[in-house]
């Protein structure tokens, strides 16, 4: 199996399909929801190039042998083991209202996030009660999977269990750089020294903003408060903006 460097596989327009497991062999079968999408929506035909991945870095490049009855038969041409990108991007996202949570995950996934942490911040309007955690996580994880296919990403970002502020602070001990997006921060994002490797965490507050206590606690844990610019972004888009800025200074070179 060949390995693709730098954690990426250059997209060439070929659609990407995700399976829980990619079996060995010279011919793969893509069925179920993925097969229906390939045959009934994309209307793929014999000879077209496709990619099949397991969402954990294994990618198969192939051509269509057959496409009918919501089932795609793929002739395997090559297999790649795509390593994780560097640096690792972690988004700590306060729970937004309504569909803005899945939107935040969708945008962050397209812009390269590797791990998303749902955060129950003090001023969150939305609260995932015990009976709603599974439903909320399912929506976020579904958004990450769909956006990975859209972006032709061989690795689907992890969406963790929701965390409290205390749990997020504990997590920061394992990152190399933590940035708290805050409109009142004096330090601009452009002035931050960004590491080329390791783990970078971006913390995004809720619609009501961060409390002074949260800002102080994150700073005590080693995080830096930064502002992206003069504009105040929505909680659902701020993380994506920060990830794009980080990628421009690290992965997109």
TrEMBL record:
NCBIfam families: PRK11713.2-3, RsmE family RNA methyltransferase. Keywords: Cytoplasm, Methyltransferase, rRNA processing, S-adenosyl-L-methionine, Transferase. It comes from the Bacteria. Belongs to the RNA methyltransferase RsmE family. It catalyses: uridine(1498) in 16S rRNA + S-adenosyl-L-methionine = N(3)-methyluridine(1498) in 16S rRNA + S-adenosyl-L-homocysteine + H(+). Specifically methylates the N3 position of the uracil ring of uridine 1498 (m3U1498) in 16S rRNA. Acts on the fully assembled 30S ribosomal subunit. Gene3D superfamilies: 3.40.1280.10, Hypothetical PUA domain-like, domain 1 (2.40.240.20). PANTHER family: 16S RRNA (URACIL(1498)-N(3))-METHYLTRANSFERASE (PTHR30027:SF3), RIBOSOMAL RNA SMALL SUBUNIT METHYLTRANSFERASE E (PTHR30027). One of its GO terms (molecular function) is rRNA (uridine-N3-)-methyltransferase activity. The keyword Chaperone does not apply. One of its GO terms (cellular component) is cytoplasm. Its EC number is 2.1.1.193. It comes from Modestobacter italicus (strain DSM 44449 / CECT 9708 / BC 501). It is an enzyme of class 2 (transferase). It is found in: Cytoplasm. This is Ribosomal RNA small subunit methyltransferase E. GO terms for biological process: rRNA base methylation. Residues 86-246 form the Ribosomal RNA small subunit methyltransferase E methyltransferase domain. Residues 30-72 form the Ribosomal RNA small subunit methyltransferase E PUA-like domain.
């Amino acid at each position: 199996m060949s390995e693709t460097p730098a954690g990426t596989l250059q997209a060439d327009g070929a659609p990407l399909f995700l399976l829980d497991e990619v079996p060995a062999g010279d011919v793969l079968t893509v069925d179920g929801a993925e097969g229906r999408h390939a045959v009934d929506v994309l209307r793929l035909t014999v000879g077209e190039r496709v990619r099949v991945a397991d969402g954990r870095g294994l990618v198969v490049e192939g051509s269509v042998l057959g496409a009918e009855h919501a089932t795609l038969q793929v002739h395997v041409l090559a297999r790649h083991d795509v390593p994780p990108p560097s640096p690792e991007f972690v988004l700590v996202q306060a729970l937004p209202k309504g569909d803005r949570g899945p939107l935040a995950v969708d945008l962050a996934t397209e812009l390269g996030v590797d791990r998303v942490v749902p955060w129950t911040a003090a001023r969150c309007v939305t609260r995932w009660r015990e009976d709603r955690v599974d439903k909320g996580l399912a929506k976020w994880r579904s958004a990450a999977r769909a956006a990975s296919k859209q972006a032709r990403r061989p690795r689907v970002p992890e969406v963790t269990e929701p965390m409290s502020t205390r749990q997020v602070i504990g997590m920061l001990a394992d990152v190399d750089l933590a940035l708290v997006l805050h409109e009142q921060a004096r330090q601009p994002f452009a002035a931050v020294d960004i590491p080329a490797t390791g783990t970078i965490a971006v913390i995004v507050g809720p619609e009501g903003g961060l409390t002074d206590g949260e800002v102080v606690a994150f700073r005590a844990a080693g995080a830096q408060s930064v502002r992206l610019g003069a504009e105040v972004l929505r909680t659902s888009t701020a993380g994506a903006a920060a990830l794009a800025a980080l990628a421009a200074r690290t992965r997109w070179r």
